[in-house]
Amino acid sequence: MQHGSGDDLFGHYEVKRRIVSLTPLIDVVFLLLIFFMLASTFLQTQTLSVITPPKAASETDSDWTVVEVRVAPGGTFRVDGEAAPVEELSAAIKAALGGDKEAVVSILAEKDVQVQPLISAVEAARQAGARTVATTRVGGGQ
User: Fold this and answer.
1) In terms of one coarse class, where is the protein primarily found (predicted)?
2) For 15, 23, 105, 134, which has the most beta carbons within 10 A of its beta carbon?
3) Residue 104 in domain
4) Among residues 93, 91, 86, which one has the least CA distance to residue 120?
5) Could you tell me the CA-to-CA distances from 17 to 8, 20, 23, 136, 137 in Å, in that order?
């Protein structure tokens, strides 16, 4: 037997272990990550800034005109007690504001109201020219 031919004293060949490189796997993972990031659709959302009063603010200014908009669970609206369909909500709020720039629109959402009618009421108040819009949940505990 010759030495150096890859076999040992008993005629067995040495098995050399190859080191597996993880670099190609990492490259593929990053390429897939980039692909899915670019291929996914992103929704463009609008933000609505909400200013909450301080905890100690319990008194109200009696000089303000307050327009009350009630939102019922069925998606029905009442402006100062009068029923208003969603298509005419902005016009009804504008009429109730009467051109008063300092008037406050108070949107009172009942307990089981979904979010979309509430958002529609806020948008209608903004379209009617209201500068101050307050939202409150009414009825049914908490």
Assistant:
1) membrane
2) 105
3) yes
4) 86
5) 17, 9, 18, 71, 70
* Residue 51: inside a domain: no
Structural domain of 97 = 66-138
Complete DSSP assignment for 81-106: TEEE-GGGHHHHHHHHHTT-TT-EEE
Hey, what amino acid is at 133? V
Residue 1 pLDDT more than 70?
no
Average pLDDT over residues 38-42: 78
Cross-sheet strand order for the sheet of 82-84 = 82-84, 77-79, 66-71, 104-110, 132-138
The 10s digit of each residue's pLDDT in 79-134 is 988 888 888 888 998 888 888 878 889 898 888 888 888 888 999 988 888 888 88
Tokens of 41: 């659709």
Give domain status of residue 60, yes or no.
no
Cα 131 to Cα 77: distance, rounded to the nearest angstrom: 20
